[in-house]
Amino acid sequence: MDGARPIRGGRAVIPATSPRRTGSGAATRACLIFLIAAGVVVGLVPTGAQTQAPQRQVPSFRSGVDVVSVNVTVTDPTGRYITDLDLDEFAVFEDGVQQEPSFFTRSQLPIALALLIDTSASMERRMQTAQEAAIGFAHRLRPQDLASVIDFDSRVNILEGFTNEGDRLERAIRRTAAGGSTSLHNAIYISLKELSKIRARTPDEIRRQSIVVLSDGEDTSSLVGFNEVLELAKRSETAIYAIGLRTGEHRGSRGFQKAEFVLRQLSRKTGGRAFFPDSIDELTGIYGQIADELSSQYTIGYTSKNPLHDGQWRRVIVQTARDNLTARTKQGYYAPASQ
Among 277, 267, 276, 199, which residue's Cα sits nearest to residue 239? Predict the structure, then answer.
């Protein structure tokens, strides 16, 4: 497809742990986190993959200038995506100070996406339906998009590296099988690290980055804590879309409430969205909503009026001039730090 070459998948084995970690266990955990950060996951960097895409407006980056880029989703009260706004209908605020956008586009930028599927033992009866829904989503990706498939239970398995070949993605999804516990934090941490390796060498290779994760319960075996994952997500350029299945045996439990909190936080902080269906049969429609959203976003870029390189968190709010519309984007970013 358009000359892009698939990147072979690998396997990251991160063993389950007991809830109590002391002494050597803490040291092991720190060592494994370091190994993950250093790139233990193999085969995901799309070196040499070339995708020919139509010419489009892209940001112009100047040396020494920090450009803040935000992807914005706009909906009306019924949830319908609004895609006909112009730049003068947006207002961007950073820490309460209105900014002056230097870049704006409604065009559909290519996507780099990690598709995460929970394959813990509790998913066994729902695995086939989940597979079919994920396959339908994968086949909606365009030739210029890249996606990977990762499943997670006690371990995180990269079943297919970044590729634009729908058949490869489908075969990878069909290889998922349920069994084991749930290492949700590990899976998201690894996905964020691997997406950060996708660097644009030319303006035409600039991509919106997303994670779409399906899970049916709380994390029970990750070595990486929630706060570490959340901090990494906030420092990334990746929007996280979370699907938390509310199953009959888990609905209302303390464990699922904790899982729901985690998924909502990750989505809100990154400008994504969280869904909590009561039935596995709703998955196809939810994946469809996510695909529609990814193809209906605006990208706005600006140079911050705050010149300090202090590494501090800066709150970002985007508003629209039209009445009764809601603009959603990431909640902020960390300013660059002085070297």
Answer: 267
